[in-house]
Design goal:
Blueprint (H helix, E strand, L loop, with lengths): L1 E5 L5 H14 L14 H13 L3 E7 L2 E10 L8 E8 L8 H14 L6 E7 L3 H9 L3 E11 L5 E10 L1
Parallel strand pairs: 4-5
Antiparallel strand pairs: 1-2, 2-3, 3-4, 5-7, 6-7
Helix pairs in contact: 1-2
């Protein structure tokens, strides 16, 4: 059974493990393996900073093991504070089992209770068709694209699709 909860500092290492797995797949994140140098301490600091700035980090777990995360960051700037951005990731073994939808739903529920929050934004690579489909099912709409945003080792490109959900 998959459960979703707010992350704690002790989840930092598990979140890093999921992030590393995604980077090693070389399909969904901007960083390459050689460029990813985030430490447990830096991940803990990021968790604290996100919360301090009015955001939230969620984890999905099964049998006590973190198998996914979602981090929503709200802008500290007054004119941008009505919106925020999120990123998420799931281990390969849990994909297509509803964990992503659960994380997004929980964030949307949390967001609807936040004073002044009106818009949840994200960027997703156009090559990640499965994720784009999930976001659309969860009510996100495409607002624009950054063409040829990412160049893969084989010379192919992916657009960065800018999507949003209005609370």
């Amino acid at each position: 059974m998959i459960t979703v909860r707010q992350a704690h500092l002790h989840d930092a290492e598990a979140i890093l493990r999921v992030r590393r797995e995604l980077i090693e797949e070389e399909m969904f994140l901007i960083s390459t393996v050689e460029e990813f140098h985030v430490t447990k301490e830096e991940q803990e600091k990021s968790l604290e900073q996100t919360k301090k700035q009015g955001g939230v980090t969620l984890v999905a777990e099964t049998d006590g093991e973190v198998i996914g995360f979602l981090s929503f960051k709200r802008s500290p700037m007054k004119r941008l504070s009505h919106a925020g951005f999120f990123g998420m990731g799931l281990t390969k073994s849990i994909r297509n089992q509803g964990a992503g939808k659960m994380l997004i739903h929980e964030m949307q529920q949390w967001g609807s209770k936040q004073e002044g929050l009106e818009k949840i934004c994200l960027g997703v690579l156009s090559s990640n068709e499965r994720a784009v489909h999930v976001y659309q099912k969860m009510g996100f709409v495409e607002e624009g694209r950054e063409r040829n945003f990412l160049k893969f080792a084989d010379g192919s490109y992916a657009d960065n699709m800018l999507m949003a959900f209005f609370l």
